[in-house]
Specification:
It is a single chain. The chain is mostly helical. It is built from 14 helices and no strands.
Amino acid sequence: MTSEALDAGSRAVAPAIAQAELSRGPSRLRPPRRTWTIGRALILLALIACSVIFIYPFIWLLSASLKPRSDVFDNMLIPQTITFHNYLTVWQQAPMALWLVNTLFVTVLAALTVAISSAMVAWGFAYFRFPLRGPLFGLVLATMMLPGAVTMVPVFLIWNSLGMVGTLTPLWAQNLFGSAFYIFLLRQFFLGLPRDMFEAATIDGAGNWSIFWRIAVPLCRPALVVTLLFEFQAAWTDLMRPLIYLRDASSYTIPRGLKALLDQFGFGGDWHWEIIVTASVIATVPMILLFFAGQRHFVQGIATTGSKG
């Protein structure tokens, strides 16, 4: 067969090949269909079951807050008689607005102070090279092994000698010295940052404080958000320290106020459980809203912090 015949044959076959490629092209760009296997279906069912288990107590609490006194414990998620009078009564029976303000004051200061102080200590352990850095960091982590009951009495005596018992100061001022858990978390994040960037900033004339505040802190924003959310939740739900340090009802936080309502209307009182469950809903809703507002940053911070170090 001559070369002219071969060229003619290839020219004749080329359009067919091109047409076949075009017909197969879109299928290659099309995303693969998700096939539902038995394992995937079981995982989905398990996640749905866990979600129902975790959300059921709050749904029950919300439903009970909308019921009259006689129907609080009927275990029906849809109330037969819906009433919003409980939400008016709880504001009349207790200074809920004042308790919310006190709690917000304590939680904001506690979250900010522990985030700033822990970040500074973590930056020192991550960036600077000094003798006994490892043993000192191990000593900081060792403080997490101490139960809170061990230091409860000495810390109370310190605040009592300073005349701070009965005020809100002991509820947040301890965070000025950082937290071992948050120091560890932030240090691991700082160790994942490129050190060459900080050395370049030093060559450009930046001081240690400028490097920390202008470069390191913005880069560790996800980890700081996780720290703020964790501490905000811990301070918002803290009951032990308000029980120890607060004396006057005007300085109560939400958890301490709920304990007072439980003593007054619950086991040792008039058995008005509709007031207690309604106050519990009011105390829980802000944390739910906070989580939904910071959910993206929270998940990002957990993921990025877990991949560092």
